[in-house]
Amino acid sequence: MSLAHRTVLVLPLFLVASVIIGCGSTPPRAMSEQAFAERLAGHEAESLEQRDDIAERLLRRLEYRHAELADQGRADEPFTYEILMLSSGGQFGAFGVGVLQGWSEVEDPAFQRPEFDLVTGVSTGALIAPFSLLGTDDSIDRIDQLYREASDHLATLRGLLFFLPRQPSFFDNQPLADRIASELDLATMRGIADAHAEHRKLLLGSTDLDLGRFRIWDVGPKAVRALETRDPDEVHRILLSSAAIPAAFPPVEIDGALYADGAVAQGAFVGLDREEIVQVFREFRERNPDAPMPKLRFWMIVNGFLDVDPELIRASWVPGARRSIEILTSYAMRVTLRHMQFGVELIGSDLDTQADFLYIAVPHDLELPLQTQRLFDPQVMEKLAAEGKRRGQDPRSWRTEALAPEIPGSAIDLDRAPSETR
Fold it and tell me: Could you tell me if 170 and 163 are in contact, meaning their C-beta atoms sit under 8 angstroms apart?
């Protein structure tokens, strides 16, 4: 079981204990019931508007890339639209950072780390995503330094009675918030805004606790606004909300609404569904009939294990609950991967173009130091980063084979009625 999972899986047990102890007072909400009702009524329209904005920016990026090639006298060459998805995974994000560093050293043109047209991130992936979009060795080194310096000082327990309901969370993550603010300074905002001017997208995911919906944040326009006002606080809060592990960290209030870890809803995402992507690419072809259809390549870094090791579980509720949630999170990511693989296959078929899906995950046989009480363990993260770098250096580490949601053999029932024979 992943160390990140072990730590998070303890949280439901504390929640049960806190309910038994009794409820405490909670701070009042800034949003009134009327404001909440108005927000709920306008949610669908706002979501559709955001979807159209993302699709329009995708079309602009395709035409931007085509114009670049035309200026070089290469208008008849197909280009590849590159998408990077960074999953959730807590301290296992050190693996993803290591992959990005090792990827910088790849010399094979087919597998070199590209300039990404779209980067999405959830939870720990959201912390890595802005620096991945910038794509320079310096930006990758900065996020690597953040993970290397991560320790329990980034989140500390709120005293002996940290589990009482009156507490906003088990841990105080203000040091993490301060570190996010220092790393995503105005210079970083400038880099994100420059990417936005070239129609490259940075999308981060949080969970809207009030509406019970996955919230996609389009960070580019917010970086532009941060430069205009010289106040990047909103971007900082978005990143903090995406990584706000339920119960462990307090939810983050943005415009009166409460947001928590994006992984509660989705461990990874693209930002547009298959039909929308196909529609945009077809519109590009209609507007540029002499241009070849662009290719697509989806890269996904899974900051965690995809498999759970067999384990003889004791017949009591604590290990049973821990094991159940561990299996739940593993299967959820496997299903997400399979859905993405299948969607990419359909996109390539619909557009009659090359569409590839490649993913990389922490190898299931990687042995890590045994710790169960720490959110950020330097020894664990150092080993994860080293393994990520080693695999990032090797193009063969990227997997393309279909990944069935079911572990082979797990769905087979060999029991038969007495009259049945093999």
Answer: yes
> What pLDDT, on a 0 to 100 scale, did the predictor assign at position 175?
81
Strand intervals (E) in 103-244: 118-122, 156-157, 171-172, 201-208, 213-218
Q: Which helix (H) or strand (E) holds 361?
A: strand 355-361
| pLDDT tens digit sequence for 92-111 | 999 999 999 999 999 999 89
Rg of the chain over Cα atoms, rounded to whole angstroms, equals 22
Give the residues across from 216 on adjacent strands: 205
DSSP string, 42-105: HHHHHHHHHHHHHHHHHHHHHHHHHHHHHHTT-TTS--EEEEEEE---GGGHHHHHHHHHHHTT
| 181 Cβ neighbours under 8 A, 6+ residues apart | 232, 233, 236
Digit-coded pLDDT (tens) for 163-208: 556 666 567 777 888 889 999 999 999 999 999 999 999 999 999 9
Mean pLDDT in the chain?
85
Structure-block tokens of residue 369: 């130091």
| Band (311; pLDDT cuts 50, 70, 90) | confident
For residue 307, what are its two tokens? 């498999």
Query: How far is the C-alpha of 403 from the C-alpha of 338, rounded, in Å?
Result: 6
Please report, to the nearest 10 degrees, the dihedral formed by the alpha carbons of residues 125, 259, 307, 311 taken in order: 130
Tokens coding 361? 């995950």
Under 8 Å between Cβ of 11 and 98: no
DSSP codes of every residue in 360-382: EE--TT------SS-SS-HHHHH
Q: Residue for token digits 């609404």? A: 257
* Spatial separation of the C-alpha atoms in residues 366 and 369, rounded to whole Å: 10
Nearest one of 279, 298, 292 to 357, comparing CA atoms: 298
CA distance linking residue 242 with residue 266, whole number of Å: 11
Residue with tokens 């899986």: 9
Q: How far is residue 407's CA from residue 274's CA, in Å, rounded to a whole number?
A: 26
Q: For residues 9 and 152, what is the distance between their CA atoms, to the nearest angstrom?
A: 18
Q: Which residue in 264, 249, 75 sits closest to 169, CA to CA?
A: 249
- Residue reference for tokens 């009524």: 41
Place of tokens 């009591």: 316
Q: Collapse the DSSP code of 358 into the 3-class scheme (helix H, G, I; strand E, B; otherwise coil) and give the result.
A: strand
Q: What helix, strand, coil percent values describe the chain, rounded to 5? A: 50, 15, 35
pLDDT tens-place string over residues 121-177: 999 999 999 999 999 989 999 998 888 877 666 666 665 555 556 666 567 777 888
